[in-house]
Amino acid sequence: MKAEKIENYYGVNSPISGKELLESGINQAKNLGTEILSEEVVGILYDTEFIVKTIENEYRGKSVILATGAKRISQKINGVEKYEGKGISYCAICDGFFYKNKDVAVLGDGEYAITEALELANVANHVTILTNGEPARETRHPKINFNNKKIREFRGSETTIEKVEFEDNSILDVSGIFIAQGIASSIDLAKKLGVAIENNSILVNKNMQTNLHGIFACGDCTGGLAQISKSVYEGCVSGLSAIEFVKQQNK
After folding, report:
1. Where are the extended beta strands (E) located within 6-160?
2. Fewest Cβ atoms nearer than 10 Å: which of 29, 34, 78, 246?
3. Does pTM top 0.85 for this prediction?
Protein backbone atom coordinates (compact mmCIF):
# COMPACT_ATOMS: atom_id res chain seq x y z
CA MET A 1 0.00 0.00 0.00
CA LYS A 2 2.81 2.39 0.88
CA ALA A 3 5.20 1.41 -1.94
CA GLU A 4 5.92 4.40 -4.17
CA LYS A 5 6.90 2.38 -7.23
CA ILE A 6 6.72 -1.34 -8.08
CA GLU A 7 8.69 -2.66 -11.08
CA ASN A 8 9.70 -6.20 -10.06
CA TYR A 9 6.33 -7.95 -10.29
CA TYR A 10 5.44 -10.15 -13.27
CA GLY A 11 3.12 -8.53 -15.80
CA VAL A 12 3.75 -4.95 -14.70
CA ASN A 13 5.41 -3.41 -17.75
CA SER A 14 5.72 0.08 -16.29
CA PRO A 15 6.12 1.33 -12.71
CA ILE A 16 2.94 1.19 -10.64
CA SER A 17 2.31 2.37 -7.10
CA GLY A 18 1.48 -0.07 -4.34
CA LYS A 19 -1.86 1.70 -3.87
CA GLU A 20 -2.78 1.23 -7.54
CA LEU A 21 -1.82 -2.45 -7.53
CA LEU A 22 -3.77 -3.07 -4.34
CA GLU A 23 -6.90 -1.32 -5.60
CA SER A 24 -6.69 -3.23 -8.89
CA GLY A 25 -6.50 -6.55 -7.02
CA ILE A 26 -9.42 -5.65 -4.75
CA ASN A 27 -11.58 -4.68 -7.75
CA GLN A 28 -10.63 -7.93 -9.48
CA ALA A 29 -11.71 -9.93 -6.42
CA LYS A 30 -15.00 -8.02 -6.17
CA ASN A 31 -15.73 -8.67 -9.85
CA LEU A 32 -15.36 -12.39 -9.13
CA GLY A 33 -17.94 -12.18 -6.34
CA THR A 34 -15.64 -11.88 -3.33
CA GLU A 35 -17.10 -10.09 -0.32
CA ILE A 36 -14.57 -7.73 1.26
CA LEU A 37 -15.23 -6.33 4.73
CA SER A 38 -13.24 -3.43 6.19
CA GLU A 39 -13.57 -4.42 9.84
CA GLU A 40 -10.84 -4.61 12.47
CA VAL A 41 -10.33 -8.16 13.72
CA VAL A 42 -9.72 -8.30 17.47
CA GLY A 43 -9.69 -12.05 18.08
CA ILE A 44 -10.24 -15.59 16.82
CA LEU A 45 -11.93 -18.28 18.89
CA TYR A 46 -12.86 -21.90 18.33
CA ASP A 47 -15.80 -24.00 19.50
CA THR A 48 -17.14 -26.37 16.84
CA GLU A 49 -15.73 -24.03 14.18
CA PHE A 50 -13.63 -20.88 14.01
CA ILE A 51 -15.14 -17.57 15.12
CA VAL A 52 -13.47 -14.41 13.82
CA LYS A 53 -14.40 -11.50 16.07
CA THR A 54 -14.32 -7.92 14.80
CA ILE A 55 -15.27 -4.74 16.64
CA GLU A 56 -18.71 -4.88 15.01
CA ASN A 57 -19.49 -8.55 14.29
CA GLU A 58 -18.56 -12.22 14.48
CA TYR A 59 -17.97 -14.49 11.49
CA ARG A 60 -17.88 -18.30 11.54
CA GLY A 61 -15.95 -20.62 9.27
CA LYS A 62 -14.40 -24.08 9.08
CA SER A 63 -10.99 -22.68 8.14
CA VAL A 64 -9.03 -19.44 8.56
CA ILE A 65 -6.13 -18.05 6.54
CA LEU A 66 -3.93 -15.55 8.38
CA ALA A 67 -2.65 -13.05 5.81
CA THR A 68 -2.44 -9.64 7.45
CA GLY A 69 1.27 -9.16 6.89
CA ALA A 70 3.99 -8.40 9.41
CA LYS A 71 4.45 -5.43 11.67
CA ARG A 72 7.24 -3.17 10.41
CA ILE A 73 7.61 -1.18 13.60
CA SER A 74 7.28 -2.43 17.15
CA GLN A 75 7.87 -0.65 20.41
CA LYS A 76 10.95 -1.98 22.18
CA ILE A 77 10.41 -2.07 25.91
CA ASN A 78 12.98 -3.64 28.18
CA GLY A 79 11.64 -6.79 29.79
CA VAL A 80 9.10 -7.86 27.16
CA GLU A 81 11.09 -10.81 25.86
CA LYS A 82 12.37 -11.73 29.32
CA TYR A 83 8.89 -12.09 30.78
CA GLU A 84 7.03 -13.65 27.85
CA GLY A 85 5.34 -16.67 29.40
CA LYS A 86 6.27 -15.35 32.85
CA GLY A 87 3.44 -12.88 33.26
CA ILE A 88 3.44 -11.34 29.78
CA SER A 89 0.71 -12.80 27.59
CA TYR A 90 -0.89 -12.10 24.20
CA CYS A 91 -4.33 -13.57 24.84
CA ALA A 92 -6.83 -12.36 27.45
CA ILE A 93 -9.29 -15.14 26.68
CA CYS A 94 -6.58 -17.82 26.93
CA ASP A 95 -4.78 -16.64 30.08
CA GLY A 96 -7.16 -14.27 31.85
CA PHE A 97 -8.35 -16.97 34.26
CA PHE A 98 -4.88 -17.16 35.82
CA TYR A 99 -5.28 -13.56 37.02
CA LYS A 100 -8.57 -13.90 38.85
CA ASN A 101 -8.93 -11.09 41.41
CA LYS A 102 -5.47 -9.73 40.56
CA ASP A 103 -4.28 -6.40 39.13
CA VAL A 104 -3.17 -6.61 35.50
CA ALA A 105 -2.28 -4.26 32.65
CA VAL A 106 -2.84 -4.15 28.90
CA LEU A 107 -0.21 -2.54 26.66
CA GLY A 108 -1.87 -0.69 23.78
CA ASP A 109 -3.99 2.32 22.90
CA GLY A 110 -6.47 1.17 20.25
CA GLU A 111 -9.69 -0.81 20.01
CA TYR A 112 -7.72 -4.04 20.23
CA ALA A 113 -6.37 -3.06 23.67
CA ILE A 114 -9.81 -2.01 24.90
CA THR A 115 -11.30 -5.33 23.77
CA GLU A 116 -8.64 -7.24 25.71
CA ALA A 117 -9.15 -5.03 28.78
CA LEU A 118 -12.90 -5.65 28.78
CA GLU A 119 -12.28 -9.39 28.56
CA LEU A 120 -9.89 -9.22 31.53
CA ALA A 121 -12.28 -7.09 33.55
CA ASN A 122 -14.54 -10.13 33.84
CA VAL A 123 -11.99 -11.90 36.05
CA ALA A 124 -9.31 -9.46 37.22
CA ASN A 125 -9.52 -7.13 40.19
CA HIS A 126 -8.39 -4.13 38.14
CA VAL A 127 -7.09 -3.46 34.62
CA THR A 128 -4.76 -0.60 33.62
CA ILE A 129 -4.40 0.16 29.92
CA LEU A 130 -0.83 1.36 29.29
CA THR A 131 -0.71 3.66 26.25
CA ASN A 132 3.06 4.30 26.59
CA GLY A 133 2.86 8.01 25.81
CA GLU A 134 -0.15 7.95 23.50
CA PRO A 135 -3.23 9.98 24.50
CA ALA A 136 -5.41 8.27 27.08
CA ARG A 137 -9.12 7.75 26.52
CA GLU A 138 -12.02 8.03 28.90
CA THR A 139 -13.50 4.85 30.30
CA ARG A 140 -16.64 4.32 32.30
CA HIS A 141 -15.86 0.77 33.30
CA PRO A 142 -15.28 0.67 37.07
CA LYS A 143 -12.43 -1.83 36.75
CA ILE A 144 -10.51 -0.15 33.90
CA ASN A 145 -8.36 2.97 33.78
CA PHE A 146 -5.79 4.42 31.37
CA ASN A 147 -2.17 5.35 32.11
CA ASN A 148 -0.42 7.35 29.35
CA LYS A 149 3.03 7.63 30.95
CA LYS A 150 6.07 6.54 28.92
CA ILE A 151 7.33 3.14 30.00
CA ARG A 152 10.99 2.61 30.89
CA GLU A 153 10.90 -1.13 31.52
CA PHE A 154 9.05 -4.16 32.88
CA ARG A 155 10.56 -5.61 36.04
CA GLY A 156 10.14 -8.61 38.30
CA SER A 157 11.79 -11.71 39.68
CA GLU A 158 13.42 -14.45 37.64
CA THR A 159 10.11 -16.28 37.37
CA THR A 160 7.42 -13.62 37.04
CA ILE A 161 6.75 -10.00 36.13
CA GLU A 162 5.87 -7.72 39.04
CA LYS A 163 6.19 -4.05 38.10
CA VAL A 164 5.97 -1.45 35.36
CA GLU A 165 8.55 1.31 35.75
CA PHE A 166 7.79 4.61 34.01
CA GLU A 167 10.21 7.28 32.82
CA ASP A 168 9.11 9.60 35.64
CA ASN A 169 10.37 6.90 38.07
CA SER A 170 6.87 5.98 39.22
CA ILE A 171 5.95 2.30 39.60
CA LEU A 172 2.81 0.28 38.87
CA ASP A 173 2.50 -3.10 40.59
CA VAL A 174 0.99 -5.78 38.36
CA SER A 175 0.59 -9.54 38.33
CA GLY A 176 0.44 -9.76 34.54
CA ILE A 177 0.64 -7.74 31.34
CA PHE A 178 -1.23 -8.44 28.10
CA ILE A 179 0.25 -7.11 24.85
CA ALA A 180 -2.35 -5.61 22.50
CA GLN A 181 -0.59 -2.83 20.57
CA GLY A 182 -2.14 -1.20 17.53
CA ILE A 183 -4.20 -3.47 15.31
CA ALA A 184 -3.93 -7.21 15.86
CA SER A 185 -1.41 -8.66 13.40
CA SER A 186 -1.25 -12.21 12.06
CA ILE A 187 1.31 -12.97 14.78
CA ASP A 188 -0.96 -11.62 17.54
CA LEU A 189 -3.91 -13.67 16.30
CA ALA A 190 -1.73 -16.74 15.85
CA LYS A 191 -0.45 -16.51 19.43
CA LYS A 192 -4.02 -16.33 20.70
CA LEU A 193 -4.83 -19.60 18.96
CA GLY A 194 -1.66 -21.39 20.02
CA VAL A 195 -0.15 -21.43 16.53
CA ALA A 196 3.58 -22.19 16.53
CA ILE A 197 5.83 -19.12 16.10
CA GLU A 198 9.55 -19.00 15.41
CA ASN A 199 11.67 -15.83 15.03
CA ASN A 200 8.46 -13.78 15.03
CA SER A 201 7.11 -15.66 12.00
CA ILE A 202 4.30 -18.22 11.74
CA LEU A 203 5.57 -21.74 11.11
CA VAL A 204 3.90 -23.46 8.14
CA ASN A 205 4.48 -26.60 6.07
CA LYS A 206 4.61 -26.80 2.26
CA ASN A 207 0.79 -26.54 2.17
CA MET A 208 0.93 -23.34 4.25
CA GLN A 209 -0.77 -25.20 7.12
CA THR A 210 0.16 -24.25 10.67
CA ASN A 211 0.39 -26.72 13.54
CA LEU A 212 -3.38 -26.30 14.06
CA HIS A 213 -5.75 -28.05 11.65
CA GLY A 214 -7.80 -25.55 9.69
CA ILE A 215 -5.46 -22.61 10.26
CA PHE A 216 -3.30 -21.55 7.31
CA ALA A 217 -0.97 -18.57 6.87
CA CYS A 218 0.66 -16.82 3.94
CA GLY A 219 2.66 -13.74 3.03
CA ASP A 220 5.03 -11.70 5.15
CA CYS A 221 3.73 -13.24 8.38
CA THR A 222 5.45 -16.55 7.47
CA GLY A 223 8.86 -14.86 7.20
CA GLY A 224 11.39 -15.23 4.42
CA LEU A 225 11.46 -13.13 1.26
CA ALA A 226 9.32 -9.99 1.61
CA GLN A 227 8.23 -9.75 -2.03
CA ILE A 228 4.80 -9.59 -3.68
CA SER A 229 5.53 -12.67 -5.80
CA LYS A 230 6.26 -14.76 -2.70
CA SER A 231 3.04 -13.61 -1.02
CA VAL A 232 0.96 -14.34 -4.12
CA TYR A 233 2.38 -17.87 -4.38
CA GLU A 234 1.72 -18.58 -0.72
CA GLY A 235 -1.76 -17.07 -1.00
CA CYS A 236 -2.53 -19.45 -3.87
CA VAL A 237 -1.27 -22.51 -1.98
CA SER A 238 -3.01 -21.60 1.28
CA GLY A 239 -6.28 -20.92 -0.55
CA LEU A 240 -6.22 -24.30 -2.30
CA SER A 241 -5.21 -26.02 0.94
CA ALA A 242 -8.06 -24.39 2.86
CA ILE A 243 -10.53 -25.47 0.17
CA GLU A 244 -9.31 -29.06 0.39
CA PHE A 245 -9.48 -28.94 4.19
CA VAL A 246 -13.13 -27.77 4.12
CA LYS A 247 -14.02 -30.44 1.55
CA GLN A 248 -12.60 -33.10 3.85
CA GLN A 249 -14.60 -31.71 6.78
CA ASN A 250 -17.80 -31.90 4.72
CA LYS A 251 -17.41 -35.60 3.90
Report:
1. 41-46, 50-54, 58-61, 64-66, 88-89, 103-107, 126-130, 144-147, 151-156
2. 34
3. no
